[in-house]
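ok so heres the complex, three chains, lmk if somethin looks off
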Amino acid sequence: MGTVVGTADDCREMFEGNVQTRITPFSSANQIGNPVTYKLVRVAGDGRLVPATDEEILEVNETDVHITTDACQTLGYLPTEGLSSRLSQLESSEAISSGLLQSDNVEPYTEQVNSRLECFNEEMLQKVEQEERLVMIDGSQVPSTPPEANIYCSNANKLFDEDQVHHEALLQEPFLVSSNVQNGCDMNQSNTVEPCSNAAASPKETALPAAAQKPDFSLVRGEICLDNLSIKALQETFRATFGRETTVKDKTWLKRRITMGLVNSCDVPITNLTIKDNKLLGNQEKSNDVSEDMGDLKDAPSGNDHMNGNSKACGHSLSVNNHYCATEDFSCEERAAKRVRKPTRRYIEELSETGERQQNDKSMVPSKDQSPSEKSEVRSISVSSGKRVTVTRMVSLAGSEIEVPYVSHVRRSRPRENIMALMECHSSCLEARASAGESNRNLSPSLSQLTSEVVNRSSVVKPSGPVHKEFATSHNSNNEEEHILSEVDQDMEPEHMDSSGNSSDDNSNTGAPIMQGVVGLRRKHHRAWTLSEVTKLVEGVSKYGAGKWSEIKKLSFSSHSYRTSVDLKDKWRNLLKASFAQSPSNSMGSFKKHGSMNIPMQILLRVRELAEKQSLVPPMSKVVSR
DNA sequence: ATTAGGG
DNA sequence: CCCTAAT
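and the predicted structre for the whole thing:
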């Protein structure tokens, strides 16, 4: 609930902040066809739509979305998820909005209608899809939408039939209007928004506080409509809606399910929204079949509203839900979220990066084609194809607006903190650059910030400025360069060894030769191991035993902050390999001809020695060492 | 948080 | 070196 309130506030902000209320050209409605999903969004003072949270993802129809429209949708649509209950919650906001709208222009009505239409369209699309699915599944004739449903639809249409003739055509498709939608529409019924505000407002106040005593709003037409249906009919409807049979006999359940299904079908991932709501309740119904789970998940997000608003209507089933939710509300949410985010991994992220960009590109095209959306501040593209949703937002920069990919605050570069700032900076910069360039050369504030941040960091470490060494030469073969550097290091190292201990030295001297800024996109930082390092490593191993990498790192590599225990481990592994590989044929002498570093025989021998020792007496060595 | 291993 | 899984 609290969340809801917050939403309302946001809405208010939107309205207030948004000076220019724009009316969506009707044309947009015509073009509809893209499912639109709105999530918690707020409008910045300048009118930009901004995700309520950084992580918030806003899926919006790419076509022009107007703030007003958005507001409408936010108000009307969001609630939709939760059904009537939601509506009640939003009432206040609606009232506000309505008031504003009224004062503003008469147009709001139109806008609302549009928004609504969009909703309908979405639903219709969904419906159609479902139908198709059904066909595929059954092969038999598609269960036509229950007559009632159609009737219902027709009613809904009547609301704004005059304006949208074309829409009707679309609506002709079997199409169930969810109660929510209805509610949302109610506002529109009267030309003036007033009625809606009034009607809505009153219920809400009562409803919100005490769920127990709620007005009849719970009995939405949709509900009623469904009510009239027999169980069988409901099942049919269910089937039509979800594309699968259901054995559930519970009328209430069916109704709810259908309603919610219709509602939810509009928006796919709602996780964000849910998360914000502490109260988001999961829908826990025991599903009869597996697929049911999916539905539940979907429902989960909106569950909250449901509870609040529909408790009355749904009766017992709801009460059960409430209970469940009360205890596990959040977990439910999480569950859903997890499901959605499952594939999340940094690795995957990177991979998907490309996809995102592509998507962006795509989005660009349609935007032009679809309709000139001059003003849409935010245009986010929902990609139905992929699970990932890319969000972009327009940022006015230097007078011109540019589309910028919305970047999550999560840092992309490697997690390690020590890492030579330089390298990180490099990689980050490169990344930033790359992404910026790839994404239509847009400068994203977030990106820039990131970059600057990185830069600052680097500057702290190395005030002198951005890497110089690295830029020196950028051959295609980094290895060579690195190799050379390593050699240099080797030469220098010995000297440092004695005085080793000051990290600054390491940073500047041991300096990371790495990313050759210009050419390679290679983001791997590589720092060749110096002889001294190897020596230390071996020493450490002999002292503390292999496997005590953290110890070794602490005691023997205090000065080399960039070597992590993992690095040590890896290096040791390599050394072992090398030592054993070389032992058979000592002919090579003290130097390996390979590209790898020259490792003195001595060391290799020592390594082998240690290795054998440890392998033979693993436990002892560890204990003994100290 | 470390360590062991695979890539 | 990087990334993960298992401790």
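quick notes: Chain A is about 60% helix and 5% strand. thats all i got rn
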